[in-house]
Design brief:
Layout (H helix, E strand, L loop, with lengths): L1 H29 L6 H14 L8 E2 L8 E2 L5 H12 L6 H24 L9 H8 L2 H8 L3 H21 L4 H18 L9 H9 L4 H25 L2 H19 L7 H4 L1 H8 L2 H16 L8 H16 L19 H23 L2 H24 L8 H11 L7 E5 L6 H10 L2 E3 L7 H6 L4 E5 L10 E3 L8 E6 L1 H17 L1
Parallel strand pairs: 3-4, 3-5
Antiparallel strand pairs: 1-2, 5-7, 6-7
């Protein structure tokens, strides 16, 4: 009992300090404006869905009835974000708070796995694996934005937790079913990249030999069967979902695997290996240092085989979640995010014996008190910065300031024509998310003749682009914008438009 109390006192100050670091790092960006291009793209779709523009199986980031339909990824993560945006009444910080809630569920899952695989873990010791996760720069960047991988990681982490429960308990049925359901949710969020936990039971058999090979195959089969049955029920229960996934297969999966959308070389496909080395570089250095100590000072730091086995299992699981990405022609660092919790767990297990030795030798009462005070100070600093940064711009300030000014001149859900360069495609999504507008970069009507008869009332044109083709419009010179100009349909053409719409309604 005394030893448990001592361990608790040793770890609690570090737990407080680690939580403070999370608040400081993620709170700094939480209430700011501006998102990464993919983030605002998904956010625009989610807001449109919450406003009744598009449907769950016909997502759109623009509001255009044809051109804006999206089939690039399975829709679950976008649905969840849509509900959350609606819940917080379209607050500008919705995406980052949603991402932070994702992170909280992931950290909870990591803690459950840590305690399940480290039976002698002292209270509050989960701070160490959290810190190992935090020092990977990609994790910080991803959860300061909103990426689909953030939501998928929740389901991946918890699927492994239920797999661990199934492997360590006699009643394996519930664990394997829950693991299969969570893998269904993972793939329903971002596709096949969420399938890598399927190798868990075979890795567990290979490393621990606590289950037989046949049982490993049985468990894996039960998980896969649950996953497949979930999709069967989905397709029968919601027939529209089948068309959605057919479009997803043709437009995204085939293109990604064949390299049709980008010119891919072997070097580009190997980028994931480079990122896997560079992003967790601090963890790899810690691992090399730890292995060196175990090799040369065995009598001083006896390495427990249990930690070694768990470290190897989680390392292989992390590699299973990253290396297969090489088969895709589309590469991105953030594709690795769902596998990084297992890299962190691997290094945390590897270094745990050294950490325990260091805490035993240097964890004095005075030193622990200083760490606690440092944690409280950082926590207070993080909360102050969170409030101070409210409404500041973290990126795209020029675009956002223009859009906030421009959209004040238009009604929400107004249809606008937007012309920007490809490098500024996120401007269209900001118009949807910030101004609640419906956007198109070509035309709204089905034919050019109908478009001329019924032109949009407003055009937003990037300043560097020519306006010579928009003779029906006049520039609003009262707005002092830096990136976009607002053009309004001239009064004469507005009268022609009203006349056309009146005649059209009579014919209908």
């Amino acid at each position: 009992m005394q030893n448990t109390t001592k361990n608790k006192k040793q770890h609690l100050p570090f737990f407080i300090l680690t939580v403070a670091l999370f608040v400081l790092i993620f709170g700094y960006q939480l209430l700011t404006k501006g998102l990464f291009g993919d983030s605002i793209f998904y956010s625009a779709m989610a807001q449109n869905l919450s406003n009744g523009i598009g449907t769950p199986w016909h997502l759109t980031n623009s509001g255009h009835p044809i051109l804006g339909e999206f089939y690039g990824h399975p829709p679950l993560a976008i649905w969840l974000l849509s509900y959350f945006i609606d819940f917080v009444q379209e607050a500008f910080w919705a995406e980052r708070l949603f991402s932070l809630l994702n992170l909280s569920l992931i950290l909870w899952g990591i803690s459950k796995i840590w305690k399940l695989t480290h039976s002698e873990a002292p209270p509050w010791s989960t701070w160490w694996v959290w810190l190992c996760w935090l020092i990977i720069p990609l994790n910080i960047w991803s959860f300061q934005q909103y990426m689909l991988e953030n939501t998928m990681t929740i389901f991946v982490v918890w699927s492994i937790y239920f797999g661990l429960l199934a492997s360590q308990q006699q009643k394996y049925g519930l664990g394997t079913v829950l693991m299969g359901l969570f893998l269904f949710l993972a793939t329903f969020s971002k596709g096949p990249v969420g399938l890598f936990p399927l190798v868990f039971f075979m890795l567990y058999w290979l490393i621990f030999r606590r289950i037989s090979f046949s049982k490993g195959v049985l468990f894996s089969s039960l998980v896969l069967s649950t996953l497949l049955l979930s999709y069967v029920f989905l397709f029968f229960g919601a027939p529209e979902s089948l068309n959605y996934f057919e479009q997803y297969y043709q437009r995204q999966l085939i293109t990604s695997l064949s390299g049709g959308s980008t010119e891919s070389t072997l070097n580009e496909r190997l980028s994931i290996v480079e990122w896997l080395f560079l992003e967790p570089l601090a963890l790899w250095i810690m691992a090399i240092f730890s292995l060196s100590l175990y090799a040369f000072k065995k009598e001083y730091l006896p390495y427990q085989s249990e930690h070694k086995k768990w470290s190897l299992l989680f390392l292989l699981l992390g590699l299973a979640g990253t290396l297969p990405i090489m088969i895709s022609a589309k590469q991105g660092r953030f594709y690795m995010v769902p596998a990084l919790p297992f890299i962190a767990l691997a290094i945390a297990h590897l270094t745990q014996p050294i950490l325990s030795q260091l805490l035993q030798q240097y964890g004095t009462a005075q030193g622990l008190k200083r760490i606690s005070y440092s944690g409280y100070f950082l926590l207070l600093t993080g909360l102050i910065l969170l409030c101070f940064r409210y409404g500041k711009y973290s990126r795209d300030q020029v675009i956002l300031e223009d859009i906030e000014l421009l959209t004040s001149k238009m009604e929400r859900r107004e249809q606008v024509l937007v012309r920007t360069r490809n490098t500024a495609y996120s401007a269209e999504c900001y118009l949807v998310r910030v101004g609640g507008l419906s956007t198109s970069n070509s035309m709204w009507e089905k034919t050019a003749k109908e478009e001329r008869a019924n032109p949009t009332t407003y055009i937003l044109l990037e300043k560097e682009l020519s306006n010579k083709h928009f003779y029906q419009y006049q520039k609003d010179s009262s707005l002092n914008t830096q990136f976009l100009d607002l053009y309004t349909l001239k009064p004469h053409h507005q009268r022609l438009k009203r006349k056309y719409l009146k005649e059209k309604s009579k014919l209908e």
